[in-house]
Structure prediction request, 261 residues.
Amino acid sequence: MPAILFDLDGVLYESDKAVAGAADAVNWFNQNSIPHLFLTNTTSKSRLELVHKLGGFGIKTAAEDFLTPPVAARQWLHSNRLNNIAVFVPETTRDEFSDFNIVEHQDTGLKNIDAVIIGDLGQQWTFELMNRVFRLLINNPQARLVALGMTRYWRAASGLQMDVGPMVKAFEYATGITAVVTGKPAITFYQAAIELLGRPAHAVMIGDDIRGDIEASQQAGLKAILVRTGKFTERDLEAGITPDAILDSVVALPGWWQQNM
Prediction:
């Protein structure tokens, strides 16, 4: 049976407002027992917080229904036997790394760091904080730079806002270190989602980001549906990337699914 991967922000909701009809669309997949997973690059909320947020929109989920960059990062750190980490993530995301030795990074002269984890800190980013990341990486050439996604920007209530991707690019440029990316648009992130779904024969991604959702998932071998909500702009259609379908919103997804899958 084919499976569907849902992006969250921009598809099911915009900031703290539900996209009209999103709950009915997701519940249709529940009612028809179609395998699905929720993918998000957010590092400002834990999986339990996401369960609560979607529940407020009338969408019933469980923590295991979500694949987030911290979950993928934990798997990668464990598989590479890296334990001493410095984390630059929101407080709720920090809890996802509680089974590692989190070192306090105020002392940028530390020499025992295995990995530096970077998430979206929004307005918390300052020159002092970014320079602290830079110094830790320079003083620990053995450390891996782990990016919880490379999203360029997203649509906040106040308008478009830079995400973590530009920050990670700054650290790569300053240090010469190439980041390990455990969120979108990394192909391995989509492959992890397919593994969690039991390797369905066909899978479809629905998202609002022409590169992070559409191009990246197609490169991972999935079909990709672009919605005209969230960060979508008409300029996206001039990017040289061809979605498998374009829908006005997720509310049209069940109808598309019945006709095409």
Summary: The longest helix spans residues 127-139. Residues 15 and 77 are 30 Å apart (CA to CA). The chain has a mean pLDDT of 91. The longest strand covers residues 3-7.
